[in-house]
Amino acid sequence: MKSYLLLGSALLFAFAVTAEYDYRPYISTNMAKIIIEQQQSPNPDPQPDIEEGCDGSGWITHGDGHKTPCPGCGKCQNQSAAMEVEYYVYHLGAEWCGPCKKLKRDVWADESLRELMGDKGAKLFIFDVDDENDKKMFDFYKVRFYPTIIIVNKNTGEVLNRFEGFRTLDQMKDTISGLGK
Question: Residue 20 burial by CB count (10 A; 0-12/13-18/19+): exposed, middle or buried?
């Protein structure tokens, strides 16, 4: 019987020696030191709460990379105080995509289209597939072709139009003109 106890004790001792070090006492001691130091000399200038805001684009990019519409910060209001946005126009493409470049240059840069979009309450957002922050949009809308243009009702989130491939200026003007009818 004694031999079994000795063998069991030896195995238990060998296991305790080879096990990783238990850091719990060390951690709790250091936590206590930190708490005591904070109570003795409180920080006179606490870190202010950091408010997330948009960059004037109408979107707030959060720490984890997802984007939400801006509720209307000063930057957004200064950019388009008179325009009430009712529709989001999403251009989902790539920097290396030829038709995407042409769409940006020939269609989105056109002043008459910009005026029409402002009158109809449509706001353009350009997303790039190679931008890590934009990948969620491509996944959410299951984009397979570049460029893809998606027009969404801001209030309901309903997709009103979806176009894959290049659209001419006249085609986009007709589409934007039809919003709200």
Answer: exposed
Question: What is the residue range of 19's domain?
Answer: 2-40
pLDDT (0 to 100) of residue 48: 43
The answer on 168 and 88 residing in a single domain is: yes
Query: What are the residue ranges of helices labelled H in 19-107?
Result: 24-40, 74-79, 98-102
84, β-bridge pairs:
none
Which token pair is 50?
């950091």
Cα distance between residue 89 and residue 161, in whole Å: 9
Same domain for 32 and 93, yes or no, is: no
Closest CA to 140 of 66, 71, 58, 57: 66
- Mean pLDDT, the chain, integer: 76
Q: What is the pTM of this model?
A: 0.55
The domain total for the chain is 2
